[in-house]
Design goal:
Layout (H helix, E strand, L loop, with lengths): L1 H30 L8 E5 L6 E4 L3 E5 L10 H6 L3 E5 L4 H9 L6 E19 L5 E7 L7 E6 L9 E11 L8 H7 L1 E8 L13
Antiparallel strand pairs: 1-2, 2-3, 3-4, 5-6, 5-8, 6-7, 8-9
C-alpha cells in the first residue's frame, strides 16, 4: 500500500514539475506573441478562427477575430493577440487580458462641413433655445433634420459652413453619416458661404 502511494506521489510530482516547465516555456513564447509548443489545439471558434490550446494545467488562446475597415486600431491589435492563463480561463477572460496594456488614446478634434438649408421648419424645442432645420450635403445622403441654437439665423437655399468640435479615439477608422456627425459632435460655429459644389469644405473628424 505504501509502495503504491509512493509511486502515485512520484508520478504526481513528475507531472507537476513537467507542467511547471512546460508552462514556463510556453509563457515566455506567448509573451513574445509566439504559439505554444507544449499544448494541443482543442477548440476553434467561429469568430474568424480563434484557436484554444490546452497544456498541463493551463490554456493558450490565439485570437484571430474578424474585423472591418472601421474597426479601431487598438481593437485590431487585441483581435490578433495570444494569451495564456489557467485552465479555468475562458474566451471572455482571455479577450479582456488581450485588451490589457493596449493604450486607447482620445484626442480633441475640430472640423468643418458645408450644408445647404433645405427648409426652415419654424419650430423650436420645448425650451425654445433651438430651431429645427432640414439640411443636405452636396452629393451625399438624403436631407436630415437638425436643431441649431437660435443665436444662428439660417435661411433656406443658402449654404453654411458648420464647424464641429468633439473627441475621437485615435486610429478608430470610424465612418460617420451626417446624422451621426450632428449627434456626436457639438456645433462650434456656423457661417454662410458662397462656395458651391466641390469647392465646399467637407472635412472628416480626424
Amino acid at each position: 500500500m505504501k509502495k503504491a502511494l509512493k509511486i502515485v506521489l512520484i508520478l504526481l510530482a513528475i507531472i507537476i514539475v513537467l507542467g511547471i516547465i512546460c508552462y514556463a516555456v510556453d509563457y515566455n513564447r506567448v509573451k513574445e506573441q509566439k504559439l505554444p509548443i507544449f499544448c494541443i489545439p482543442m477548440t476553434i471558434y467561429s469568430d474568424g478562427g480563434t484557436m484554444e490550446y490546452w497544456g498541463l494545467g493551463y490554456k493558450v488562446i490565439d485570437f484571430n477575430r474578424l474585423y472591418t475597415d472601421e474597426t479601431p486600431d487598438w481593437e485590431k491589435e487585441a483581435n490578433s493577440k495570444i494569451c495564456i492563463g489557467s485552465f479555468f480561463m475562458d474566451y471572455h477572460d482571455a479577450y479582456q487580458k488581450a485588451r490589457q496594456g493596449i493604450t486607447i488614446e482620445i484626442k480633441n478634434v475640430q472640423f468643418t462641413r458645408t450644408y445647404q438649408v433645405i427648409a426652415d421648419l419654424d419650430r423650436t424645442n420645448e425650451s425654445g433655445t433651438d430651431q429645427y432645420y432640414v439640411v443636405a450635403q452636396f452629393q451625399q445622403e438624403e436631407p436630415i433634420l437638425i436643431k441649431v441654437n437660435k443665436e444662428y439665423s439660417l435661411e433656406e437655399n443658402k449654404n453654411y459652413e458648420f464647424t464641429f468640435e468633439g473627441s475621437i479615439t485615435v486610429g478608430e477608422n470610424k465612418k460617420r453619416d451626417n446624422a451621426t456627425i450632428f449627434q456626436e459632435f457639438a456645433i462650434k460655429n456656423i457661417v454662410e458661404t458662397d462656395k458651391v459644389g466641390l469647392d465646399q469644405i467637407q472635412e472628416e473628424p480626424n
